[in-house]
Amino acid sequence: MKQRIFFLPLSSWALYDLANTLFSAVVLTVYFPLYLTSLTGSNSVLGAVTTGSMILAGIMTPWAGALTDRTGKTKLYLLYSTVCCTGSLAVLSVFRTPLPLLTAFVAACFFYHASLVFYNALLPCAAPPEKQGFASGLGTGLGYLGVVLALPIMNQIDKAYGVSAVFLACAFWFLILSLPLFLFVPERAVSKPQRPAAGDFRREWSAVFASVGSLPQSPKLMFFLAGNFFLVDAVNSVIFWLSVYIRDIFNPPQDQLIFVLTGLNVSAFLSGLVSGFLCDRFGSLKILILSGVSLLATLIGLTQPLSFPVFTAVCFAGGSFALAGTWTAGRKAVMELSPAEKTGEYFGLYGLTTKISVGGSFLYSLASDAFGMRQGLGVLIVSAALGTVLLVRSALCGRCSQGNLRL
Questions:
Q1: pLDDT computed for residue 84 by the predictor
Q2: CA atoms of 271 and 147, how far apart (whole Å)
Q3: pLDDT digits (tens, 9 = 90+) for 25-43
């Protein structure tokens, strides 16, 4: 009976990862980049609007994380952000010209990234500490599995009704698949819940500046956040530009593009499960470093003039573990670092580093316009290498005084 009680909130929490991955993978990675670049004829416009939306979300992230610690309303805030994201995505299906498309897209991206803070803060409610790596990996894996199921369906919807119908279908299923979390995952317990106040935003940003200023006193935490920043910068860029890269370098038929992306997500699903197990067994920081090495090797390989089958094999072999391992190990590392009463605050700080780590995407858009898609990968190689080195430096530090990050 206890196992059934434990499994229900865990699976419901992980299912939300499947729901929001429909937005990040189907909309952000496949259809919207291709749609917008075909309208504007420029990669730079897409890079700029994506960077702007993530920075805007990053500004709100520390406040959002601390808000969950103070009020005990994490699920309510997650519900609001989910409804606003799916609503903006549905509105996206209405427009056909760049300016209103970009406005709706920025709104959808903002609420999507805000929802991740609230979602991650509910991880302690879904699984006990010894199973949180598994839970994080299950969520990551289910997200990629959902994409495997969704991409062929969305491809058929696109052929029959157009890309606008794809955006509408994603909005619908995002909302439907999020319902089990709201029904079966318990709310975070807060000892002394408080009402939100007008000065909270200013106070939380003051706390962020104070925390950043104190990071040199906790070198393990400082190097972890810095390394994760640069590693996620490269990961975010790969996720967002992958379909455009494949189209411009290889120009395969859309069915073949969908097949490759589906296969990559199958591999990422398995990698998510494996990386979650490895995090519980060996510690999250080691797996995060391994993910960085895998990403770096993959990017270096993709700078070579590969045939399409070899390109696909490289992505399957190294890229899937790099992507899945980064998210799985990163979330687990935050749980190992954070005191229970400050889970939201730490996820807010973690979310800030992941949201503002968008410089690589914009720089890659400029480099690809100037030098070509393959040559532009040098920007991401530098980011991945720097992130991996900083994570290794974190592993070499002594135990962090602010948490219990396990090596």
A1: 94
A2: 14
A3: 788 777 887 787 777 776 6
Record the tokens describing residue 357, joined without a space: 């780590």
Assess contact for 114 and 91: CB atoms under 8 A. no
Taking CB atoms within 8 Å and a gap of at least 24, the contacts of 252-258 are 252/308, 254/155, 254/158, 255/155, 258/30, 258/151, 258/152, 258/155
Place of tokens 């490289």: 314
**CB 191, CB 340: distance < 8 Å:** no
Tokens of 106: 């920025």
What are residue 196's phi and psi, to 5 degrees?
Answer: -60, 145
- Whether the CB-CB separation of 392 and 268 falls below 8 Å is answered with no
pLDDT tens-digit map of 374-406? 888 888 899 899 999 999 988 887 544 444 443
Contact in structure between 237 and 364 (CB atoms under 8 Å): yes
Residues 187 and 304 sit within 8 Å (Cβ to Cβ): no
| Full set of structural domains in the chain with CATH | 2-180+204-396 (1.20.1250.20)
Per mean pLDDT, which range of 59-68, 208-217, 279-288, 319-328 is the poorest? 208-217
Per-residue model confidence as pLDDT tens digits over 188-204: 776 776 776 666 667 76
Contacts of 287 (CB under 8 A, 6+ apart): 275, 278, 279, 325, 328, 329
Place of tokens 């499947």: 18
Q: Is 254 left (phi over 0), alpha (psi -120 to 50) or beta?
A: alpha
pLDDT computed for residue 388 by the predictor: 93
Cβ 388 vs Cβ 227: under 8 Å: yes
CA atoms within 13 A on the CB side of 295: 36
Compute the distance between CA of residue 283 and CA of residue 300 in angstroms, rounded to an integer.
27
96 phi, psi to nearest 5 deg: -130, -5
